[in-house]
């Protein structure tokens, strides 16, 4: 799941929303579909573009000319996530389920400000629109090497959602900027300023997708994994290596590794040994799960031999875990 908030430095968001809304209507203009993709939010599913512009531009009271008036949030499921949705619900229903998911994401957006009175998507002024296509840009390697031209359609299922959310809440009382990551002078000051944790917001979108649709995410598909690979400390890299080895073995260890990586990314474990000990507290035993024999139809069961081999492996692994914990 890719979720991105367009930076106000590069976005033309200090004036009317008309230009952005017009741009996001491009598919309706070029595809000549009998039923266009309407704008939607928690109140309706068939909002017209002029109503979106009128609402957003009418919610800018007391904002200076140099202040952002709105922000653009890109919510893009991966090809694997889209394939899963379509297999579960079918193309039409998958789109409706995706819209419901976006409502939940916007509730997480609201809660991330940790501001009294801003508790759900209903406290925000926002409008979203499903887009079905993506186009090659000058940033894509295919354009750089000449195999594609800028503006060419990308293949595969490219369904994603663009959300425009007002800088001010739906009452026009509070200013809410997702670009404000300052922790402030203290907790009270930060609460007043409405600080926003963009990493936590993006991770909440990933978690919500898995919980909402029962999607089983692999370790290497998590945002936490990508962040550790890119910016992790040596200690986090070592812990990640243990999880990678465990995730190669069987379903149980893959599932547990995908859960533990969140703690690794947050720096909750002082060592690999502590991480594995924690896993033993939250599950039967990470070692036992990792060492569970994989059933093979072509082999003859040997319970006594397998038990002895597991005992020896477990002893060695526990000794290794003890060494890592020192």
Write the layout of secondary structure elements.
Blueprint lengths: L1 E4 L12 H7 L1 H5 L18 H9 L12 E7 L2 H11 L1 H21 L14 E6 L9 H4 L15 E7 L20 H7 L4 H16 L9 H9 L2 H14 L3 H15 L6 H11 L3 H6 L11 H23 L1
Helix pairs in contact: 4-5, 5-8, 9-11, 10-11, 12-14
Overall description:
This protein has 14 helices and four strands. The protein has 326 residues and is of the alpha+beta class. The protein has two domains: 2-213, BirA Bifunctional Protein, domain 2 (2-Layer Sandwich); 219-325, no CATH class. The chain has a four-stranded antiparallel beta sheet, covered by helices on one side.
| Sheet with the most strands, sense and barrel status | 4 strands, antiparallel
Which range does the strand content fall in?
5-15%
Class per helix and strand makeup: alpha+beta
Rg calculated over all Cα atoms: 24 Å
CATH architecture name of the largest domain:
2-Layer Sandwich
Q: Going across the major beta sheet, what is the strand order?
A: 1-2-4-3
Average pLDDT confidence is: 84
What is the CATH topology assignment of the largest domain? BirA Bifunctional Protein, domain 2
Order of helices and strands: EHHHEHHEHEHHHHHHHH
- Number of extended strands: 4
Helix content: 40-55%
């Amino acid at each position: 799941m890719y979720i991105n908030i367009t930076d106000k430095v590069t976005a033309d968001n200090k004036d009317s929303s008309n230009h952005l809304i017009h741009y996001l209507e491009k598919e309706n203009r070029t595809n000549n579909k009998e039923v266009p993709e309407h704008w939607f939010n928690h109140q309706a599913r068939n909002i017209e573009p002029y109503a979106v512009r009128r609402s957003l531009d009418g919610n800018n009271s007391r904002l200076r000319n140099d202040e952002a008036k709105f922000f653009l949030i890109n919510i893009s499921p991966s090809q694997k996530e889209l394939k899963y949705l379509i297999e579960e619900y079918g193309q039409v229903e998958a789109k409706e389920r995706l819209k419901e998911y976006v409502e939940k994401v916007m509730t997480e957006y609201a809660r991330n400000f940790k501001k009294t009175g801003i508790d759900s998507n209903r406290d925000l002024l926002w409008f979203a629109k499903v887009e079905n296509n993506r186009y090659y840009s000058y940033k894509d390697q295919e354009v750089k090497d000449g195999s594609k031209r800028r503006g060419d359609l990308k293949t595969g299922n490219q369904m994603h959602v663009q959300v425009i959310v007002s800088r001010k809440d739906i009452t026009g009382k509070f200013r809410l900027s997702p670009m404000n990551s300052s922790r402030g002078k203290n907790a009270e000051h930060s609460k007043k300023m409405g600080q926003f944790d963009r990493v936590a917001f993006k991770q909440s979108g990933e978690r919500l997708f898995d919980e909402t649709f029962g999607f089983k995410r692999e370790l290497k598909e998590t945002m936490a994994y990508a962040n550790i690979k890119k910016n992790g400390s040596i200690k986090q890299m070592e812990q990640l290596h243990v999880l990678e080895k465990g995730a190669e073995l069987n379903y149980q260890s893959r599932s547990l590794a995908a859960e533990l990586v969140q703690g690794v990314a947050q720096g909750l474990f002082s060592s690999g040994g502590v991480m594995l000990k924690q896993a033993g507290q939250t599950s039967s035993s990470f070692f036992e799960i990792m060492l569970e024999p994989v059933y093979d139809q072509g082999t003859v069961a040997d319970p006594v031999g397998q038990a002895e081999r597991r005992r020896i492996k477990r002893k060695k692994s526990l000794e290794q875990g003890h060494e890592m914990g020192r």
